[in-house]
Design a protein that fits this description.
By secondary structure, the chain is an alpha/beta fold. The protein contains nine helices and 50 strands. Strand 2 and strand 3 form a beta hairpin. The two termini are 77 Å apart.
Length: 582
């Protein structure tokens, strides 16, 4: 009908006005509204009643019906003064409706210490053009509270310290102007709390110490303007808490130490402005907290010391913009950052979490997983599909990396190998060369198993050669030298091979026709064992003095030993140089 920029004038006539409901008012208010951009003003006829007559209804315990009425005064403080009541004495009101009404009061609209009971309270589709509305310390008992589709041009709205008992309350589609909206210390009872599509506009909004109790609470598609939004110490009970598609302004958003109770808390597809966002010390006893596809601004996002030990928290496909992100010393059942863009410092030094999902993330800065002030209890982390452009601060032993990856359920060897490869590259960049070697070995082990399974799955007949080939790689590359990461392991493998060939020569001469002949007369008499170990030594190291010559079967054995010795010496050189060069 009109906008915030409309102007109006009112003329009160001593003419009776009858509403469509048959309610009679002694006077008629002629409301002329000038709408910008319209040549002709809009004229509305409304009923009008003096506040003295309203006070008489209160005295007699009658319901107050101001539907389609022009209201230029409503003050329970004045009512108490005229009745010589204590300023804080509750005033019983057995029903109050002012639907499609027009409030135009210079003084505050005072509902303080009102005691509404049994009947509806409704301002549905009304315009509060002038007048700050104050419900401080009011109470509603078994009353349906309908504040939907109301336009408060003056955004100063006081609903603090209100007690709601067994009553539903709705602010659906309501619009507030600029000003402070205060719901501090209000107890909303166990009924439905609906703030859907509510326009808070500019100004601070406070739900500090507000008690929402059991029952669903909906701030779906609610919109906040510039100003601080404060839910500090608010308490929710069992039920769904919905902030889906809500739009927060650029002021600070404070959910510190909020108790979310039990159930789902949903911030999916919400948009946060550039102010800092804090859920520090918040708590969800059981259920799920979801921020899927949520967009965060440039401010810092803090989830430090949060208590969600029995709750799942997900930020799947959320955009964190340029703000830092911290979960320091928090406890989660599961934490999912799946498919998020982590472009700035992200602190995931949790004190407890069963499962952290970092799969398919794009990391351009630092992910910090290395605790130093407490002992972390993290069972599993999923790095699958991570695009690591930045760095991960993580320690192989301190973070128990193998357990984090090997404990993943329903993850094949290929995905595990890719995760180890990602960490291997990360350790190389951060200079953690020992950890790099450990990650590289696990990467190669899982890669070999994945190649084996994939080949057999594609061509079952390939098992005839793939298993022997896998066994060869397992023995030579893995067991003999941990993929050239451990020179001492290679030296041990060299010693084992040397002893094996030496003993084989002994048994070959004892139980076969093969032998090792002397081509040079020695001063001392060589024993069988001594001759075998000496010949094995010069053959293994490819020295080849020629004073002993293999005969029969030992010829082939000597050639194999020479190749083995040459291979393992080269293997040792590679492993040793690799260590030295770093």
């Amino acid at each position: 009908m009109f906008s915030d920029h409309s102007t109006h004038r009112v003329e009160i006539k001593n003419l009776k006005f009858v509403t469509d409901e048959g309610i009679r008012f002694p006077k008629t208010a002629i409301l002329t509204i000038v709408v910008p951009g319209h040549s002709n003003p809009v004229v509305e006829l409304l009923g009008h009643i003096d506040f003295d007559e309203v006070s008489r209804h209160i005295d007699e315990g009658l319901p107050i019906n101001l539907n389609h009425c022009y209201i230029n005064k409503f003050s329970l403080s004045d009512y108490r003064k005229t009745r010589k009541l204590d300023p804080k004495q509750p005033v019983p009101i057995h029903g109050f409706t002012a639907k499609n009404a027009f409030f135009d009061s210079v003084a505050p609209l005072d509902f303080t210490y009102a005691a509404f009971d049994g009947k509806d309270f409704s301002l549905e589709h009304s315009w509060v053009f002038k007048g700050r509305m104050n419900f401080n310390y009011s109470s509603f008992s078994k009353t349906k509270i309908d504040l939907s589709n109301v336009h408060f041009k003056d955004g100063n709205f006081d609903f603090a310290n209100v007690k709601v008992d067994e009553s539903d309350i709705s602010f659906k589609n309501t619009i507030f102007g600029t000003g402070k909206k205060d719901f501090q210390y209000t107890d909303f009872g166990t009924g439905k709390k609906i703030f859907t599509n509510l326009e808070f506009n500019n100004g601070d909004v406070s739900f500090v110490n507000t008690v929402f109790n059991d029952g669903d609470v909906s701030f779906k598609v609610a919109r906040w303007g510039a100003g601080k939004v404060d839910f500090h110490f608010a308490k929710f009970g069992t039920g769904d808490k919905t902030f889906e598609q809500a739009e927060f302004g650029n002021g600070a958003i404070n959910f510190r130490t909020v108790e979310f109770g039990r159930g789902k808390a949903n911030f999916n597809r919400s948009v946060f402005g550039n102010g800092d966002v804090s859920f520090e010390g918040s708590e969800l006893l059981e259920g799920k907290l979801s921020f899927k596809k949520t967009v965060f601004g440039k401010g810092a996002f803090s989830f430090e010391q949060a208590e969600f030990r029995n709750a799942d928290v997900t930020f799947e496909r959320s955009d964190f913009s340029s703000g830092t992100l911290s979960f320091y010393n928090s406890k989660f059942k599961t934490l999912s950052l799946n498919s998020c863009h982590l472009d700035h410092y992200t602190d995931i030094r949790l004190s407890f979490c069963k499962y952290i999902d970092l799969s398919n993330t794009i990391v351009r800065d630092i992910i910090d997983l290395k605790p130093y002030e407490f002992v972390e209890e993290i069972e599993t982390i999923n790095f699958a599909g991570m695009r690591l452009i930045g760095r991960i601060y993580i320690d192989w032993e301190q973070n128990k990396v193998m357990r984090l990856i090997e404990s993943q359920a329903d993850v094949n060897h290929r995905l595990r190998s890719e995760q180890y490869r990602t960490l291997k590259e990360n350790f190389r960049v951060t200079g953690q060369y020992t950890d790099e070697d450990l990650a590289y070995v696990e990467f190669k082990r899982h890669e070999a198993k994945a190649d084996l399974k994939d080949s057999i799955a594609a061509r079952p007949v390939s098992a005839l050669w793939m298993y022997p080939f896998y066994g060869f790689k397992l023995l030579i590359f893995d067991k003999a030298g941990l993929y050239a990461t451990n020179p001492l392991r290679v030296m041990l493998a060299m010693l084992v091979a040397y002893v094996f060939f030496s003993i084989t020569y002994v048994f070959a001469e004892l139980f076969t026709t093969a032998s090792i002949l002397e081509t040079v007369v020695h001063n001392e008499t060589a024993t069988l064992v001594g001759k075998a170990f000496y010949f094995s030594f010069v053959t293994y190291l490819t020295i080849g003095y020629g004073d002993f010559v293999p005969m029969g079967f030992t010829r082939m054995l000597a050639g194999l030993e020479a190749f083995t010795g040459l291979f393992l010496m080269s293997y040792f050189t590679v492993a040793f140089v690799r260590k030295i060069l770093r």
